Amino acid sequence: MSITQFLAVMQARWKLALYVFLFVVLATAVASLVLPKRYTASTAIVLDVKSVDPVAGGYVPGLMSTTYMATQADIITSDRVARRVVAMLKLTENAEIREQWLQDTGGRGEFDAWLANLLQNNLEVLPSKSSNVIKINFSGVDAKFAALLANAFVQAYTDTTLDLRVEPARQYSGFFDERAKTYREELEKAQSRLSAYQREKGLLATDERLDIENARLAELSSQLVAMQALSAESSSRQAQVRNSADELRDVMTDPIVTGLRAEAGRQQAQLQQLSARLGDAHPQVIELKASIAELRSRIAIETRRVSGSVGVNNSINIGREAQVRAALDQQRIKLFQLKAQRDDALILLKDVETAQKAYDAVLGRLNLTKLDSQNTLTNVGLLSSATEPPFASSPKLFLNLGVAVVLGALLAVAAVLVREFFDRRVRTIEDIAEQLQLPVLCVMPGPAKRPRFGRQPDTARISMQQRVLGLPAATRTA
């Protein structure tokens, strides 16, 4: 349909369009005047998304999420918050509201749920896209009641956010309390095993005792080295005794042997003098020879005595070396056992330390969750409270009339087009060409109308309105 055809249809059916337009506008005006006035109370809250946890410290990570504001808006419009508002204002005790519930539902379902749903239908939550402010609107037929409910929703939302934070903390507190008891029992068992092992093995300070035993082992090792040196020396002297006892240093340095040898030497010199002067048969010479023989006998006895003491010393040194060696071996075995005991004690001590760390960690979390479960602080701040609105928010007469004008015009055009679709008529030259599928050769001028003020029709204008369709431009006639 061309613009010419559309205008021709609207011109032919202008009355229908006018009726539809007037009906829509008048119906809107009447409805706006008849409908009860509703008042909208508004309040605003601000959320601290950088809030620091007062218990654990540090920023709360969930507050930095981009979906946090949308989540809070969903919480405000949730059934839990609406039910809390109902409980706060004691709306279930209102007889008029209960009567309305009985009329609407016939007493089926829960009264609280129906009332909460009714409140949710009149609630509007508008989270800001560029800030942390959430605007809460509540509409009602009573301005004072609307303001009361708007403020009640803010309070209910604040309490609900606190409950949502405290309830998990309480659950975690019970869980950590049970775990703390379990870890404490494990710690006590580990400590008991360590104490029993220390009492059984006589371990008080394992590291100190180990140091003492290591020092004793080092001392025995030094003693063994010294005894080995003495044994080697005494064995060498014992061998020398077997070869030549007279040349033994102990014999040569012995004072008795030295004195006897000196006396024997002196008497031997005297014997030589007397023998040369008196002869071998002289009594003095014989007596002196007997004295020298006695001295030599005593020297031999003393030599045997000294060489015998060397053998005894050698035997003693060998025995002492064996004793030190045996003590060293026993000390090594004892040290090995002590190290094994220390390792076992360290394992038990490690179990105690591990149980202690686990118990301390759980106890720390338990204390934090207990404090968090008793927390009464939230990150919700009241920016502006709702007050009784002085003017009604709906119905808005002029706004509704403006919408009705636009909507009435659209409905009028739609009604005309629908009417024309079911009752099609020829109104323009294009309609003839479309219906007959034939070209229009010419258009005859209509009868001239006499002007009201005696003016003659303009023949030139009439001739200009004549058209010839479907023919070349040269064959068109006026």
TrEMBL record:
The keyword Transmembrane helix is annotated on this UniProt entry: yes
Where are its TM segments located?
397-418
Domain named Tyrosine-protein kinase G-rich is located at 344-420
Q: Where is the Polysaccharide chain length determinant N-terminal domain?
A: 8-87
> What subcellular compartments does it reside in?
Cell membrane
Question: Record's Gene Ontology CC terms?
Answer: plasma membrane
| PANTHER family named among the record's database cross-references | FERRIC ENTEROBACTIN TRANSPORT PROTEIN FEPE (PTHR32309:SF13), TYROSINE-PROTEIN KINASE (PTHR32309)
Task: Enumerate the InterPro entries for this protein.
Answer: Bact_polysacc_biosynth/exp, Chain_len_reg_EpsF, GNVR, LPS_length_determ_N
Supply the alphabetized keyword list: Cell membrane, Membrane, Transmembrane, Transmembrane helix
| Keyword Cell inner membrane annotated | no
Q: Which NCBIfam families match?
A: EpsF (TIGR03017)
What GO molecular functions are on record for this protein? protein tyrosine kinase activity
> Topology with regard to the membrane?
Multi-pass membrane protein
Q: Name one Pfam family in it.
A: Wzz
Q: What is this protein called?
A: Chain length determinant protein EpsF
Q: What is its main location?
A: membrane
